[in-house]
């Protein structure tokens, strides 16, 4: 073969291969883009006609079958009409249900970013993760108001402010649904505590509900166009959410025009006929109440119309057709189950949310050239704590702890010393020496009365974490009586723990110091007792098991001796100490309220380490505010990292060493104590006001539930609304966060007058007046001093996150719509604006608004 001929053939082959490669790449690009860009189609006559035709092919029993779940996380299939089972997954911070996944900085951490663009990016990442697992319904986001810091589920939700929640939830939902996955906004509504969440009846007036607790759901429906809503467990004004006519029919499906599927939370239904008639479309995880036995009979006797059942099925069919779930597999193999791209999203979220609350003497950022030895101490330092517990808990493939994150950043030339600093809880129980013996008295009743069977164990160390167990058919109560002698003078920690529905009290010398009355779940409880050397205290613990077995632990330990010797030694030789404290999946979780104080022993740990090394930086992991009174004035820096997801350790290291400016801002007011919180007096059930709820379930005996009642008499005075209205101050205000640079605001421009209902432009300048690049959150608050109704002194009505280089100024314009000036008129049952004077305030927190201008609304 001649060289010229050979060259010619080679060129042809190369061209053909190149063309094939281009074609393959184009196909890959198109296929990938097509698989990702599968946002729901708008409703149309064609979709409506097809959905109705599908319904027409079904028997009543088939239709009823479709409005109850199956196998915990699926809807039922009907092969005859080509309807597959639709798959669900728990969510909020990751696609949890189907194995390891990417764990993000979501919920409260997302709110701390104050970043709409990132909210959408996070939603897109969660949507991709869902498609990689064949998930149709992502069971999130949660948008309930963070009414009180002890709510064990605040970390899943967003903020204390309805405007901020709504502004973030809409793009989050858009992001999820752009990937062909339905988001599910939850928990609708007034689910603001985990304490007895199944049975508590929340009473609130219409204005409070409309202005504070519903706007984020409204934004999810009207702006985010969410396709699924999940009802909450609790009762609202006397009726369970799953059968609440006002919320489900009048507001959600009526006033807001919601066209999607309204589902129950898992086992949140109590009456099949009432739920069917009052808007519930899908009972999960199974049809305990909205089943064929109940509803077939109800349709036949006329208590439920068949058209009501048809509407529920139509909603499901329209949604499935809108997303194309009948025409393509939901499992998208072009998406990565372990996604490197989504690890970057996880890191971005952690970086954007980390909030610097104290930085005395410019302790931070740390100068890497001056740090030769760093001690990392604390229970949250390792292993990584990515999120709280319960149904949102996401197991990530490779989570980065604070220890590994810092170690990776500083490299081999810096000595990294790690110590947990505290013993494990079981060690405290095991090692407690009851000086004069221990008696365990078991009574065959719940009242600690009559004859008891006694034993003399060496310790009280039966604790194990169990959510459920078999019913105890033999009533029991167990009393532990013991004496403890102090080997030396000091503070002693009394520590107790049990599981889930167990109840216990602990008394010291006849005075009760601990009570665990939780009805569903719980966390370890502790109390501090001052003792002199040789002093003996009498300890009595009364324990009521919730089900078969014994899961109770009790111990006493000297706080000074409790702190590990290696932790103190490491702190003494280190140039700087990073002290990692906070909560985790066992102390902050769905199913129980958490403590406002740090988990047991951590206050003592901070005090002890700060006494050894004044260069101690406290990093906190958790869902909101907590008690800092024992040690805040003893440490120079405090960093709130929320639950930072799987890349938290990397993000915390970058912020501590100045590789990234701390740009998070508080989405909640940070109280000094739980008792200082404005909702404290209106959070727990009213004593003596419990009622009974009689529940009938097919093929089961009737059950009478105890219904405690909580009255939201704090009304609108939740969080910063209370603090700014009263002129009092929390420890750190809503919207607050420090930076490594400085910002200033200037040139506010607001029109002098506006017509009622019109859009009002507000513009101003934000300048980075420091030497470091950073991001500021410009916040707009509106006051209505001339209102006929009593209103909070100010309310958040706009914000924008601004990224600025040193010396850079950006001009910001934000439009305030009619809602920014409105309140809910209970007489008109509608939003209204009182003409008169308004004040527009601009700044960087609810308490720091240096710019203000008057506006007259005609």
UniProtKB/TrEMBL annotation:
Q: Which GO terms describe its biological process?
A: carbohydrate metabolic process
Return the SMART domains for the record. Fn3_like
- One MF annotation (Gene Ontology) recorded for this entry: beta-glucosidase activity
Q: Does the keyword Hydrolase apply?
A: yes
Query: Which keywords has UniProt assigned to this entry?
Result: Hydrolase
Q: Which residues form the PA14 domain?
A: 433-575
Q: Which Pfam families match?
A: Fn3-like (PF14310), Glyco_hydro_3 (PF00933), Glyco_hydro_3_C (PF01915), PA14 (PF07691)
Concerning SUPFAM superfamilies, the annotation shows: (Trans)glycosidases, Beta-D-glucan exohydrolase, C-terminal domain
**Family assignment from sequence similarity:** Belongs to the glycosyl hydrolase 3 family.
The molecule here is called: Glycoside hydrolase family 3 C-terminal domain-containing protein
What organism does this protein naturally occur in? Answer: Telmatobacter sp. DSM 110680
């Amino acid at each position: 073969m001649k060289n010229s001929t050979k060259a010619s053939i080679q060129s042809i082959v190369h061209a053909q291969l190149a063309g094939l490669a281009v074609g393959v790449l184009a196909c890959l690009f198109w296929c990938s883009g097509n698989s990702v860009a599968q946002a729901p189609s708008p409703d149309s006559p064609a979709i409506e006609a097809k959905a109705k035709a599908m319904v027409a092919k079904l028997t009543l029993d088939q239709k009823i079958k479709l409005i109850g779940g199956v196998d915990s996380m699926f809807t039922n299939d009907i092969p005859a009409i080509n309807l597959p089972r639709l798959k669900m997954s728990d969510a909020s911070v990751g696609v949890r249900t189907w194995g390891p996944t990417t764990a993000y900085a979501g919920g409260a951490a997302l709110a701390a970013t104050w970043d709409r663009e990132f909210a959408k990016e996070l939603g897109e990442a969660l949507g991709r993760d869902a498609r990689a697992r064949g998930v149709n319904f992502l069971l999130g986001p949660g948008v309930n108001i963070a009414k009180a810091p002890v709510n064990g589920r605040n970390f899943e939700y967003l903020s204390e402010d309805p405007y901020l929640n709504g502004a973030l939830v809409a793009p989050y939902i858009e992001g999820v649904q752009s990937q062909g996955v339905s988001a599910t906004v939850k928990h609708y509504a007034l689910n603001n505590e985990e304490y007895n969440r199944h049975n508590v009846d929340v009473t609130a007036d219409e204005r409070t509900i409309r202005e504070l607790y519903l706007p984020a759901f409204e934004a999810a429906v009207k702006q985010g166009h969410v396709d699924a809503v999940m009802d909450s467990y609790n009762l609202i004004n006397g009726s369970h959410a799953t059968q609440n006519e006002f919320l489900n029919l009048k507001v959600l499906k009526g006033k807001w025009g919601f066209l999607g599927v309204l589902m129950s939370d898992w086992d949140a239904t109590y009456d099949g006929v009432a739920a069917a008639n009052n808007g519930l479309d899908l009972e999960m995880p199974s049809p305990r109440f909205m089943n064929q036995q109940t509803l077939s009979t109800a349709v036949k006797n006329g208590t439920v119309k068949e058209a009501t059942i048809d509407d529920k099925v139509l909603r499901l069919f329209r949604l499935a057709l809108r997303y194309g779930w009948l025409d393509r597999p939901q499992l998208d193999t072009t998406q990565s189950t372990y996604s490197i791209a989504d690890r970057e999203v996880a890191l971005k979220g952690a970086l954007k949310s980390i909030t610097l609350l104290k930085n005395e003497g410019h302790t931070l950022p740390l100068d890497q050239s001056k740090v030769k030895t760093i001690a990392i101490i604390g229970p949250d330092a390792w292993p990584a704590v990515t999120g709280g517990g319960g149904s949102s808990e996401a197991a990530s493939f490779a989570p980065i702890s604070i220890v590994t994150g810092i170690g990776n950043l500083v490299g081999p030339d810096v000595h990294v010393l790690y110590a947990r600093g505290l013993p494990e809880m079981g060690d405290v129980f095991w090692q407690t020496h009851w000086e004069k013996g221990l008696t365990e008295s078991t009574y065959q009743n719940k009242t600690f009365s009559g004859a008891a069977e006694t034993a003399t164990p060496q310790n009280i160390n039966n604790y194990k974490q169990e959510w459920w167990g078999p019913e105890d058919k033999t009533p029991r109560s167990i009393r532990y009586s013991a004496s403890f002698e102090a080997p030396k003078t000091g503070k002693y920690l009394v520590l107790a723990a049990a599981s889930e529905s167990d109840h216990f009290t602990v008394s010291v010398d006849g005075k009760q110091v601990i009570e665990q009355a939780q009805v569903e779940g719980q966390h370890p409880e502790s109390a501090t007792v001052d003792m002199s050397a040789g002093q003996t205290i009498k300890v009595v613990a009364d324990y009521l098991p919730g089900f078969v077995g014994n899961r109770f632990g009790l111990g006493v330990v000297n706080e000074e001796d409790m702190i590990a010797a290696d932790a103190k030694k490491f702190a003494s030789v280190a140039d700087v100490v990073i002290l990692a404290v906070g909560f985790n999946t066992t102390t902050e979780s769905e199913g129980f309220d958490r403590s406002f104080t740090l988990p047991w022993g951590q206050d003592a740990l901070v005090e002890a380490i700060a006494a050894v090394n004044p260069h101690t930086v406290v990093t906190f992991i958790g869902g909101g505010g907590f008690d800092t009174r024992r040690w805040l004035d003893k440490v120079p820096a405090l960093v709130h990292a929320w639950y930072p997801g799987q890349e938290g350790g990397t993000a915390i290291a970058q912020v501590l060493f100045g590789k990234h400016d701390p740009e998070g801002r508080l989405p909640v007011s940070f109280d000094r104590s739980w008792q200082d919180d404005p909702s404290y007096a209106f959070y727990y059930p009213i004593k003596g006001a419990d009622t009974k709820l009689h529940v009938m379930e097919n093929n089961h005996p009737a059950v009478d539930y105890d219904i405690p009642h909580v009255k939201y008499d704090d009304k609108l005075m939740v969080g910063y609304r209370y603090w700014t209205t009263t002129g009092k101050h929390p420890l750190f205000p809503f919207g607050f966060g420090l930076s490594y640079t400085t910002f200033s605001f200037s040139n506010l421009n607001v029109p002098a007058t506006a017509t009622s209902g019109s859009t009002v432009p507000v513009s101003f300048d934000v300048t980075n007046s420091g030497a470091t690049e950073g991001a500021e959150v410009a916040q707009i608050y509106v006051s209505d001093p001339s209102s006929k109704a009593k209103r909070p002194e100010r309310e958040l009505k706009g914000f924008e996150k601004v990224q600025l280089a040193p010396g850079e100024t950006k001009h910001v314009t934000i439009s305030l719509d009619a809602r920014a000036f409105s309140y809910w008129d209970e007489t008109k049952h509608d939003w209204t604006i009182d003409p008169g004077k308004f004040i527009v305030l601009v700044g960087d927190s609810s308490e720091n608004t240096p710019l203000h201008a008057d506006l007259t609304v005609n």
